[in-house]
Structure formats: C-alpha cells, structure tokens
Write a structure and sequence with these properties.
4 copies of one chain form a homotetramer.
Chain A: E1 2-7, H1 11-22, E2 26-32, H2 36-46, E3 49-50, H3 54-59, E4 65-68, H4 75-84, E5 88-91, H5 99-109, E6 116-118, H6 126-136, E7 143-151, H7 158-162, H8 167-183, E8 188-196, H9 201-205, E9 211-218, E10 223-229, E11 237-244, E12 247-251, E13 259-262, H10 277-280, H11 282-297, H12 306-325, E14 329-330
Helix pairs in contact in A: 4-5, 5-12, 8-12
C-alpha cells in the first residue's frame, strides 16, 4: 500500500486524486494546492490530510510517493525536493519548458536513486497500446510510417496560453512522446514543423499558432507526421495510424456510446467523440497509475522516465527551430 | 452471341434493355411493350426492332432468348409460348401469384427441354454472394441463423399494390428466395408470419400490410428471420446476416459514396444508402445477365430455375396462411 | 448515505459489492452468502461485516437496503422478509420462475410500502438508453419495429441450465424487458416463439434450446423481433435496432478498444466485442445503482419496478406456450 | 456525337477505349499504338479503325477529339499537333516532366483556341467531389487543413520507374492536383517534402524514394499534408480529409463489397480495398469523360485545364527542391 502526497488539485490533479482514492494499492495521505479551498474540497471528498506547504507534503515520513500536478514552473523544484526526501516521483508533463533547467535537473537527479515517472498518459490508452504492440510483434511487418492526428476540442484561452510554452512544447509534446513510444529504439533524426494562426485571437496576441503540421524522419528512415489543432468542433480528435510492410493499424476515435442514427439525410451517424482528455483518456490515467504503482512496488524501472520527458522537449524545441527557420532540423538528444 | 427479344420495357425492363445492349455476348433483337411509345423509345436508344406482338418477338427464328419483364399475369403465357418456340427463357419474378397455375406451367414445361431462369437478382449481388460463399466454405462453421432485413424506400402506390399479390408474394418473395439460396439443400420446414398496417393508407384500403416479420425453421433446425417495410426514409435497406458456430458474416448496406461527415452534432455520418433496387443491385443485374448467358452458351443449368421461383411462392403462400391463422405453418414443397 | 446488506456474492454479487463500495452515496454494511468463504473474501476486500444468516443481514436496524443477488428460488422469500423489515429492495432478475408465486408476492407486497427495484441492467446502458430516448423524443417518428439481437458468448453448462427456467425465462427475459422499456405504454399483445438445439448437448439433455427466435406484435401494431443464441464466438452480441417513420437508431456492439487492423486479407477489422455482461454492461450496472440510490433518497418510484419483473415473466411464459403450441399467443398481463 | 482518336492503348488507354465505346455521346474512330498488335486487339473489340501513324489519327477530318494516353515524352508533341489540327484535346497526366517544355507548350498553345483537358481523374471521384463540395458550400466552415493519404498497392518496377520523373512528379502529382482542386483559388505558397527508401530495391537503384511525406501551406494559411507509399498490402489507399472551423469531411476508402466478417479473432472485418486505380476510380474515369464531352459540346471551359497540369508540376518540382535542400520552398506559379 503506497501512500501519496498530491501537489496540485486543478482539473487534472482532481482526477488524479479520485484515481488514487479508488485504487486499492495506494492511499492519498496529503493534498496541497496554492488555492487552499480547492485542496480542502478534495481533502473532504477523499478524506485525506491537507498539507500546509509543499514541503510538508513532500517530506512527511509517512509518504512514499510525491505526485506533482502543479503549474509547470514548479515541477523541477518539487522533483528535486522529493528526490532529496527519497520519495518516488510522478510528475505531470512537461518537466519544464527550459531544456537547460531540465538538463540541470537530470544531472542533479543522478545523485539520488529515486524512481521518476513523467505523466505521458497516452501511452497507456488501450487502443494506442494495442497499436504499438501490433507493431512490436511484427504483425504489420517493418515499420514505415506513423501518422498522429491530435486536436483539442477548443482553445484554452489566453491565461493558459501565455505560460504554455507554445503549441509544440505544450500540446504537440504529447504527440512527440507518442512517436518516441511507437518508434522504440529508433530515434527521431530530423524534424520539420510549420503552423498557422487561423482562428484564435489569443494565439495571435501571443504570437503562438492554433494549427500545426510536423514531419519527422527517424534514424532508420521511418516517416512521421503529426497534425494539431486547438479546435475541433466534433470533440477531442485522437488518432494514431501505424503503417508497415505487412499492414496497418489505426487507433481510432471513441464515442461515449455506440449509437448510430439513420434519417433521410444521414446514415450510421455516431455521436461527437469524447469531449476532452479527462473523458477520452479516463482508462489510460487509471492504467498509468496502476503501472506506476506496480513498478514502484516491484522495484522495476518506471514506464515513462525522466529522459522520455527530456527527449520530447528536445524534439519540441527542434520543431520550434524548424518553424522559425523553415529548415529540416537535426535532433541532438 | 445470343439474340434477345425483350418483352416489357417498364422500369425494370428498360434497365434490362440497357444491360443487354452493353453486354458483349448478346444483342437485343426485338423489344415489345403494350405501351408502344415506350418500346419505340427504347428501340431508338438501343437500335433494335420493335415487335408488333409478343408472338412476333417470341417466335422470330432470329431470336435465341425470350426475356420476360412484363406484368406478372402474362408471365406464364409467354413462358409457354417461348418454350414451345424452343427459346431460352429469362423471366422476372414472380412466375405467377397463383400456385396452381405455376404447377400447371411446371408440368407443361416438362414437355420442352428449354432453359428457364427466374430473375431473383439478389443472389448475384457480390456482397450477398460473398456471404453465402463464406457459409458454404465452412468459414463460419455450422449454419445456425439467417436474418434478412429488407425495406423499400417508399410504398409503391395503390395501382401497383392492388395487383401485387400482397406483401409476402410481391416483396418478401425475394427474401424467401434468398433464404433458399443461403440454406442450399436444407429446405424451410415451417413458417410463421405476421404484419401490420402502420402508415400506408393504400395498404389499408386493399387489406394488405406495410410492415412484416417472418420467422422460419429449416429442416435441420436453422432459424431464419425476415423483416420488411414498405418505407425506410434512409433508403433501400438490404442486409443479410448469416450466423454460425464459428462466426458471422454480414452483407451490409451500401452508400453511393464513401463520404463521412463530422460536425458538433454527428461523427462518421454517411449518406443515405442507395435509393432503390436499380441503384443498389446495378451490379447484380449485370452479373445475373452474364451468368444467364454463360449458362445458356455452355449448356449448363440456369442459376435460378423454375423450381426456385415455385418454391419461393410456396413459402410466401405459407406465410400468408400463417398470417391469417396465427399458426406455425408446415411447408410442403 | 444508504447502508446496504448484500445477499449473494457469486459472479454478479461480487460485481455489485464492488460497485457499492466505490459509490460515494452508499456503504456496504453486510454481506451474506451460503458459501461462507466467498462472503469472507468479499468482506475482507470491501471491509464490511459478514452476516451469519440472511435474516441478520435483512433485519439489522443499521441497514437501509437489501440487495438480493442469490439464487432465483430464494428471491421471493428475501423480498418479503425485507419488505416486512421495511427495507428498500434491489432484486436481481428474474423475481421467480413461477408466475403464481410472483403474483402471490405482488399481493403480499401491497401490504408494505417499500420500494422494489428489479435488476434489469440493460435499461441503463448509455447506448440502449440513447436509442430509447431518440424514440421517445420523436426523432425517428412513429415507432414501427424493434429488433433485438442478444447472444451469449458461450453456453453456461448443465448445472446452471437445469435450474434456469429455460431460454425464454432465463435469457430472453432481459430482451422482453428491454422491449417493454422501449415500447413504453404500448404493451405486447401477442408473441410467437420458436427455438432449436443446434450445438449444446446440455440443452439437449434438459430439453431446453440453445437458439431462439421470437416475434411479437404490440397493441398499436409495432412488430418486435428477438433472436438469441447461447454461443457467439466473437463475444457477447448485444444489439438493439429501433425503426420508425422518420428514421432508425441502432445501439451497436462495443469493442474493448478502438483498434482497426488492415492486412492483405482484411481491412477495418476490430477486436472481438466485449466478452460478457460484466464487461459489456459495466457502466450500466454502475448507473443502475446510482439511479436506484437517487430514487430511494428522493422518495421517487424505482426505475424498474416489481411489475416490470412480473410482466417480463408473463411474456416469457407466453413465448414458452407458443413454442409448445406453434401458435401466436395472446399476452394477458 | 464526338468522334475520338485514341493514342495509346496500354493499361489506361484500354480503359479509356472501353469508356469511349459505351458512352452514348461519343464514338471511337481511330486507335493508334506503337505496339500495333495492341491497337489491333482494341480495334477489333471496339470495332474502330487503326491509324497507321499518330499523324493520321490526329489530323483525320473525321475526328473531333484527340485523346492522348501514350508515354509521357510524346504528350507535348501530340498536343501541339492536335492543336494545330484544331482538335479538342484530352491528355493524360503529366503533361511532361520538364517544366521548360511545358511552359513552351503553353505559349505555343496560345496561338490556337482549342480546349485542353488534363486527365486528373481523381477530381471526378464522387466521394472526393462530395468532400470538395461540402467545403465549398461552407458546410465545414472556414478551411483549415487538408490531409491526403495516397498509397499504391505495389511498386511499378524499374522499367516504369526509370522514366517516371520520380515519386513527386509521377505519383504525388495527382495529390498536388487534388490539393489545388480543394484549395480552389487559394494557391500553395510553400512546400516541404521528404522521403525514404524503405523497401524497394528498384527505387534505390535509380535514387528515387518509395515512401514520402509532404507538408504545404497555402497563401491563406491552410495546412496541407500528403503521404505516399509505393506499397500498401491492403490495396490502393486513397483518403482525403478536409478539416474546417465547423467540421470535417473524410472521403474514405472503398471495398469491392460490403461484407463484414466476425470470428473469435476479429469483428466487422471488411475485404481489402480496391486493388488499384482502374477499379477504384472506375466511376471517376467515366464521369471525367462525360464532363469532358459536355464541356466540349457546350463550348464551356474544360474542367481540368493546361494550367492545372502545369501548376501540379510546379509544386512537384518545389517538393523535389525541398527534398534536396531540406528547406521550406516557396512556390512561384
């Protein structure tokens, strides 16, 4: 039975709290949030303690795991505090927006022998995972192409965007990680990225983009495409296509129900797909937690490690450089 | 090169004329229709002769095949004339609405050694045929159930209905034949049928039904279901499901294009399915003609013979008896 | 916060125990099972008390709800004990296999004013429910047909079958209830049923059937079809098709993931559908529990009441009578 | 009634010959092919004359249309001969591999007032066309992204490849044209292209690629992606996705039949999609011919004109430059 301190109970932190609460292999000991009423609300629902400070939550001798779901700029600080306290660490993506800080953190972490898991939840989605496994098993032959479509239902607003690090480091970073996951030990060699501001005034104001397309080539020559949008009226569009010499697998979108409608205008019409990540990746988040716990309890390496977080950021930075230069940028991990 | 006389150029006859015209193995020599202007129009389009009488069309020494697409009450007369003239015969379904006349015709036909094909076009639909072949090949194991959904897009109107012989003999007869086709040499042993008048005033007026459901059991115990409607707003609904010990095959509906639409209300919405039989079974009609020609030219038995037409009518009559008596009726072929 | 006593922790009872445990609006106070080790195991997992007898579980003053998931023959006894103790009652289907006992129980229950919910879980499936709602909203116009396909993945074995009451009262009873649910206040007027023994030696031994087809007509003329099998190699086949004057809705099957495979043999191939009811109706069982709790807490009528259980049994009995007589049987509720 | 001379009766020319033969608005007067037996075979089947030289076919006073389906290097010569003879021209894609020759031809053509149609058949596919129309009608709002997947079933072999002009000018050129078609009057501003040799030894030998990915941005900021392969084991993969502010349309792949298979391994498995362009774009080729004829007979501009052919080549050249330089290349039409 692992005991958790959870830092941050915003939208995603709240979901983590509930998943921890219903998982029979762990217990939520502390919650902490700068917004104290939010922490109080969760503490009441889950019946756990409220830490007066992050330090209290992190260093309590009663706690095995520090679960970091706070704002990105705080991540590294909490990671290092937790490492110093000898706790296992689960940290939401991204580690940080600044690769230098990430490198420094990496170096610092080498002093400690603590497990670190970075929260790239999509790897744990049963459909994406089955697609990856079909590729690994040789079922589709030699890998040739990966295509990821990843569109949010609606733009997040200026408050979120201004500190987000921009499309590639905030949103596409999930897709870069998924590419790494599928590619396995065949790293991305080059990245080309472009983008447009087509609809979102907030993006325009901060000189970000709302629509993006990326092409990558792996060391072995596998071609990879990602396309992103900050808005898709039909829901949270999450598709992965893996193409090889003997076939193809597609992890398709999912609708809340399996209803189909037929009228004089349409046939086989399904509902809009799941609205957003909380709904779409509900199972993935639960499975991720279980895998994390299993690995900690069995002294096995975490499923998504610090380097995975670092590598995704490096490719995101490469994409940004490509966007600015118009060139096919070499990735140096 | 077979030479055809075509009797009847109504909706279905016109389509047959065009199929004959583009088939490289046959030629349309004569057309005949009680509605002479219709015959003239086709004759001009196809560049063929107009027979002044059915007799001329049937007995012309230049003609190999008599293709009967006239009103049902004329079928038997033309079949026997054609048989007497030694012609190969293609006759649209149903042979006749009166089983006694059909039996008499059958007996009479025994005097002649002419090939007769009854136009149950659905057997030649590539999807239905693949489903049947999957069953025959053992791919789905031992046959257990067959379910046919068969719905017209809109009711035909009182003029058609009053001489149609009623739902079972006019519309369901196609489905009875398809059941026979799929069952192969396992005949239908019992039939139960019911129906309702739910929307069509014309049906009500002539005491017919617009909606029907039928259940049958074959000699070996296979259970069969047919459901019919005279109206489906989304198009001509034609589905066949064959279920066995090792799996299932479904011959699904078909849309004119493969377009899918996604909005904030719907996803993966396709178009309405094909409007009616001319569009839906376009390929089936062409293939049927080719198979008919191949069989004639190679002295092989026709693919759908007189007994197939007779047997479908016998089951239709059983259905009607069941509808009237509320009993599970034994079929005596 | 409602306190529950759960009687019976077999396969379905165990699932109920877990759902009760994670529902924030209720608590599992007691479990009871004739198989004491099973009860102990659950009690340990959930951290609740073990009742030494059903009486203890039912009459404890600390308990608000008696949840009956024991063998069918015990249902009525426990219902009446619980009613006598003034408890709210949740009882798994069927109430009993003997309509006379059900009628007696109904009469007896009139003395008490306790809420009774019969566990027809399928009504709470989001897809089936959306289909029903589309019908109720008038979206598909006037109702004309309902078609339910309901096939188990594999036969249950002789031990289960011999006390099951036969296909119609054990398995089809779910589908009869679903028909009632969709039809609303348009009762079934007549039922025709047939069946076959096609593969299951156990069914043969006890003179039951493994494959069934049923046709019903409602008072307003709506035609209804159910087809059942005790085995479907591709999983637990659960489809509902509702057809009306303005369109159709289909509640289709569901696969564990949204993966599609493409090879040189197949395209768009999905996985087998959910294996059985625990997986397929996972959400439905949780929602059913929540709806039950909400109704109890708000003094509202239960969503599936005693009469719903009784009516489904009456139609099942009609089906059996039809199977034996080969006649279209009138239903007298 | 337009009279045609057809130059070239290879695979695609033969199909054109058949389409011309069955179209009621035109007649095949002459065929010509350097491979005389091939011409003789077609002439016999279709019952038309064999020209002894291209000149005879082109200049015959009896002929209205010159239909060019010969090897690419001959196109421009025949176009100009036909223009000089005052004939309407249908020319298969590409016009030529050398943009300088194309520009010279364009200039020369200005002297003549003859209609020229370039054979980009995909524009006439009913599904692709419906997708384009949904975009034009505003149904999906403001256009934001276009994604084209275009994969051949198997590589064409070294003989074809060595004169093909390479992936972009031979294969992707169809997709570039489709992009222009969908974009309408919003030209492509920049193109990035990459590629790999992953499986085809022939491609390797001639320094071409077998797998490609392209990203483009239009003047208005629309992002476009194309991905190509010379091999897809499941058939000729042809998908178009158009994404906008109010929704998305997808023109999906098509299978020969609508059969679905269900076993203990797979569900809803369809057949491999159409094998190649002759099958997949069968309707498109017929419609293209009809549209061409209608435009000629009604003195309307051709649906795909010389500039469409030229513009697709210009983008293909830009793609090649990008592939070689690793840069985002500006398109100068």
């Amino acid at each position: 039975m692992l005991k958790f301190s959870l830092l941050g109970v915003g939208r995603i932190g709240k979901m983590h709290a509930q998943n921890i609460a219903i998982n029979p292999n762990c217990e939520l000991e502390y919650v902490y949030d700068v917004n104290n009423p939010a922490a109080e609300k969760i503490a009441k629902e889950i019946d756990c303690k409220i830490a007066k400070s992050p330090e209290e939550a992190i260093s309590s001798s009663n706690v095995d795991v520090v679960y970091i779901a706070t704002a990105t700029p705080t991540h590294i600080d909490y990671i290092l505090q937790a490492a110093n306290a000898g706790k296992a660490i689960f940290c939401e993506k991204p580690i940080d927006l600044d690769i230098k800080k990430v490198e420094a953190c990496k170096k610092e972490l080498e002093k400690y022998n603590v497990p670190v898991h970075i929260g790239f939840n999509r790897r744990f989605d049963p459909s994406h995972k089955s697609a990856k496994e079909a590729k690994d098993s040789g079922e589709i032959g030699k890998l040739e192409k990966i295509i990821i479509t990843s569109r949010d239902p609606s733009p997040p607003g200026i408050d979120y965007l201004k500190d987000s690090g921009g499309m590639y480091r905030d949103m596409t970073i999930h897709d870069f990680d998924l590419m790494h996951y599928i590619l396995g030990n065949d790293p991305i060699e080059k990245v080309f990225a472009t983008g447009s501001i087509l609809f979102d005034e907030d993006c325009k104001e901060i000189n970000d983009m709302d629509t993006a397309m990326i092409v990558m080539r792996s060391r072995s020559g596998v071609l990879c495409h990602i396309n992103n949008s900050r808005r898709a009226v039909y829901g949270y569009d999450q598709r992965v296509e893996i193409f090889g010499s003997k076939g193809m697998v597609i992890s398709d979108n999912q609708t809340p129900s399996s209803l189909q409608k037929f009228t004089n205008k349409i046939t086989k019409a399904q509902e809009p797909i799941h609205y957003f990540f909380i709904e779409r990746y509900k199972e993935a988040y639960k499975i991720q937690l279980q895998v994390f716990i299993d690995n900690i309890l069995n002294n096995k390496p975490t499923a998504v490690n610090f380097d995975d977080g670092r590598n995704a950021l490096i490719v995101a930075n490469g994409a940004l450089e490509s966007y600015q230069s118009g060139k096919f940028i070499k990735i140096n991990y």
